[in-house]
Structures are given as structure tokens and as C-alpha cells.
């Protein structure tokens, strides 16, 4: 696809370490990524999760619900001897599976489409889950969908909560004053937590500014959060950096005047 983002400033809001590839893709497409993390990932002390790690061999199935869960937990699991040989491993989506593969995990159960807890449960539902012991690896808090539905199938479920999500202490005014000649023209937000943090960081002064931008998000649940905060234009682009980029390219290509033949 040609450089349909030429001259477009795009707000990239995910944690800084996870924005490198997305920023590169935007630049390659001619756009200007403006990095303003609205979320930080803070690993928990190993002592806080040691009691669960000590019992890893008891679990038949390990479920990783996000790339962050895989990124934070796998080095600690590796120090305990790695994933038990008898245990199956599942990932909510391709990004999470890719992180697991970096740690040498293979034969990962992952949904073929949908890339959320509902899609993963549908994939797991063909397995005999009765009497299974399942470990869900995630950050602190979050949805209980997998827990409730796995228990309904007879599984015993525990959590390994290995990190916390933190709202950065930054002032949205520095971002608003940064805008170039045409101002910020789009926002990429990859989770509901990021959307909520953005609006808290914006305060009254920045709320209307945020609402005036189109938001590009990976999932309808994130879109619903953006709409609930007053965002008027939300594009559900799909999961992954390439999908977010393609969504933005499609949007801005339609806004450009047709080329003369």
C-alpha cells in the first residue's frame, strides 16, 4: 500500500517498549508517530508470585491472556524449569503466541479468529476439561470470563497475576501543545484501560480535543469504551500492529483527493 499517511500525526498510546514496531510501521507509511504512553506495565516482585510458581507441575493447562503476561511471566517460569512437559499452553491471540514462541514454547493453542477470551474458550471447549487444573496468567484484575466458563466445564482454575497496570504521571497539555500545523489527526488505542487512562490524563481541558480525533482500536470492546467517553469516530481495525496501520491507511486514503489521471 502506498504512503497514505504522508504528513499525518498519529498518537500512539501503548506502553513505550511495545510501541517500537508500530512507530516504525507508521513512519514507513509516511506518517509521524507521536509516542504518549497511557499505560505502563509494572512487573510484580517475584516473591509475590512465588507461591503459584512453586506449584507449576500441578497444572495441566496454562493460559496466557496477553503479550504482557507472556513477556513478564515466561522468564520467571523458565527459572523454575520452564513449562511442565505434560502441560498444554494456550494464548488468547497471535501477539501473545508470538511472545511465547520467543521463550521457546511450541504447540500453542490459539483461536483461529476472534482473538479474545470468547474465541479461545470456543477453541478449548473441544477439549476434555473436567478435572483439569488450569493456570490463567495475566495482570492484576481483568475479566472473569475464562475463569467462570472453565469452572462450568469442571476445571479447577487459579491465577498467576504477574504485573500491574499503572497510569503514567504525565500532563496531557504537553501533548496538545506538541501538535504540528494540522494537529494530531488520529489515535491508536489498544485496550480499554488505555482509553480510560487517556481521558483521565486529559481532564476537562483535553476531553473535547481527544473526542475530535478518530480512534483506531483492535476490538469492539475497546471501541465501546471509546464511544462511552464521547469519541465520535471509532474504527475497529483488528488485532496486531499491521491491522491498526492498515485501518489508519484506509481511513486517510479516503480523505485524500483522487489523483489526477
Distance between the termini: 18 Å
In DSSP terms, counting alpha (H) and pi (I) runs of 4 or more, how many helices? Answer: 10
Assembly classification:
single chain
Note the overall shape.
Answer: elongated
Walk me through what this model shows:
The protein has helices at 20-28, 46-53, 67-79, 94-102, 117-124, 145-152, 172-176, 192-211, 220-228, 241-255; strands spanning 9-12, 32-35, 40-43, 61-64, 88-91, 108-109, 133-139, 156-166, 186-188, 215-217, 234-236. It is α/β, with parallel strands linked by helices and 261 residues long. The chain has two domains: 9-39 and 168-255, Rossmann fold, CATH 3.40.50.10090; 42-165, Rossmann fold, CATH 3.40.50. The strands form two sheets. It has a six-stranded mixed beta sheet. The chain has a five-stranded parallel beta sheet with strand order 2-1-9-10-11, sandwiched between helices. It starts with 8 loop residues before the first strand and ends in a 6-residue tail after the last helix.
Q: Can you describe this structure in just a few lines?
A:
The chain has 261 residues and is an alpha/beta fold. 40% of the residues lie in helices and 19% in strands.
Amino acid at each position: 500500500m502506498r504512503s497514505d499517511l504522508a504528513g499525518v500525526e498519529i498518537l500512539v498510546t501503548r506502553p513505550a517498549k511495545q510501541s517500537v514496531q508500530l512507530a516504525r510501521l507508521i513512519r514507513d507509511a509516511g506518517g509521524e508517530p507521536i509516542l504518549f504512553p497511557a499505560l505502563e506495565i509494572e512487573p510484580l516482585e517475584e516473591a509475590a508470585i512465588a507461591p503459584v510458581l512453586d506449584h507449576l507441575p500441578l497444572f495441566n493447562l496454562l493460559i496466557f491472556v496477553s503479550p504482557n503476561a507472556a513477556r513478564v511471566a515466561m522468564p520467571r517460569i523458565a527459572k523454575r524449569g520452564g513449562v511442565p512437559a505434560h502441560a498444554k499452553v494456550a494464548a488468547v491471540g497471535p501477539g501473545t503466541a508470538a511472545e511465547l514462541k520467543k521463550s521457546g514454547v511450541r504447540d500453542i493453542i490459539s483461536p483461529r479468529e476472534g482473538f479474545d477470551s470468547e474465541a479461545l474458550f470456543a477453541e478449548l471447549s473441544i477439549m476434555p476439561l473436567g478435572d483439569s487444573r488450569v493456570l490463567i496468567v495475566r495482570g492484576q484484575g481483568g475479566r472473569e470470563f475464562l475463569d467462570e466458563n472453565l469452572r462450568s466445564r469442571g476445571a479447577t482454575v487459579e491465577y498467576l497475576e504477574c504485573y500491574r497496570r499503572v497510569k503514567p504521571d504525565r500532563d496531557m497539555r504537553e501533548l496538545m501543545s506538541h501538535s504540528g500545523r494540522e494537529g494530531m489527526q488520529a489515535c491508536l488505542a489498544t485496550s480499554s484501560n488505555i482509553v480510560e487512562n487517556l481521558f483521565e490524563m486529559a481532564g476537562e481541558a483535553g476531553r473535547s480535543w481527544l473526542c475530535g480525533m478518530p480512534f483506531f482500536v483492535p476490538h469492539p470492546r475497546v471501541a465501546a469504551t471509546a464511544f462511552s467517553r464521547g469519541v465520535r469516530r471509532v474504527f475497529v481495525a483488528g488485532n496486531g500492529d499491521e491491522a491498526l496501520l492498515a485501518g489508519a491507511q484506509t481511513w486517510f486514503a479516503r480523505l485524500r483527493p483522487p489523483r489526477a489521471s
